Amino acid sequence: xxxxxxxxxxxxxxxxxxxxxxxxxxxxxxxxxxxxxxxxxxxxxxxxxxxxxxxxxxxxxxxxxxxxxxxxxxxxxxxxxxxxxxxxxxxxxxxxxxxxxxxxxxxxxxxxxxxxxxxxxxxxxxxxxxxxxxxxxxxxxxxxxxxxxxxxxxxxxxxxxxxxxxxxxxxxxxxxxxxxxxxxxxxxxxxxxxxxxxxxxxxxxxxxxxxxxxxxxxxxxxxxxxxxxxxxxxxxx
Length: 237
Known about the structure:
The chain is an alpha/beta fold. The chain is built from six helices and 13 strands. The strands form four sheets. The protein has a four-stranded mixed beta sheet, with helices on one face. Strands 6-7-9-8 form a four-stranded mixed beta sheet. A hairpin with a 6-residue loop joins β3 (26-29) and β4. The longest helix has 28 residues, at 112-139. The relative contact order is 0.11.
């Protein structure tokens, strides 16, 4: 897939992606960072792309305004852990990160982002291993669970491969536990149905009868979880 860049008169930068599989022009605004991407069929001229974007100006403005800006993990910032807002606070001599009541403690004098990300990965792994094991047992006969991995994904909260391997975003540790449990149930149900057919949703409902509320929460608030940045700031010269 070839990429380029288109800059509008107001300074908006649009990433152009040409795809041999695309049959029409598709404009998207990133849920986590507001980045604008226009996917084009291979033969579409740049002038046609500009006209298409101009026609979508009102839509683009609305969606860019609604996209959350990036939020950087830093000392003193309030941050979601398991659906609750806690304050990131520094403590001398601490290794990693530790949750104490309404504070997430990190080492003083070090960028907190990597420690907070490591804490979330560890919490997500523990919670998802338990949830997946519980849902696999409740599901009954299905494809064998071949393993589980965690990533920092932007396009999906979880996935299930044809080999029965599950993948989850470790950012689920920021969501309420019931939402994490829903994503685990959703992917475990794919061990029986590798689609989103009525039979699949029946399997999800059998594992988690109130799954619709948790799915709706993720649709409403998921972009805010994706907006957090954990990269360490550059050190001064």
